[in-house]
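ENTRY TYPE: protein
WANTED: fold as tokens:
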Amino acid sequence: MSSTTTTTTRPALTSTLRDPTSWRSVITPANKLLLTGIIHCLVPLGVPALRDPLLSLLRTGYVDGLRALAHAPTPVLYAQSNGFWFVVSGVLMGIAGRALQCYVRDVGEATHGVVKIPRSVAWGLLGLGVVGVTSNPVSGFWSLLLQGVWMLNWESRPVTATKRGKAA
């Protein structure tokens, strides 16, 4: 009795990263959004205006701390809430970036061709950036606005063996 199993393997990412002609496969809107989310989660560690209230919130318990904001708003509670939502929005951007990575990978493998970010995602990010820049011009919302514009015009093109200087 013999059983045969078939496994599918993905091409090694390291060969793509080392190939200087394949920089487009590394610099994508999905990776940029994921990186933005990671940076958004790390920024509070270096900014005392976010770090100190956030650590205070974690020490007192974030559920009770955020609940207190609804009953008796104070500047300290507002600062804690600001730090909390700053980190939560970073986590959400990271999740969205990872989902886009999977989308681009899976659609690219299925079609062996050009992959575009769904226009609804690009327009949504662009709209969020416009609203954010309008309400808070000195902020990181400019990054979301620019990423939305980039997503509207971006498309992946597979790097072929001939483009890398190898015979097909």
The CA atoms of residues 44 and 51 lie 5 Å apart.
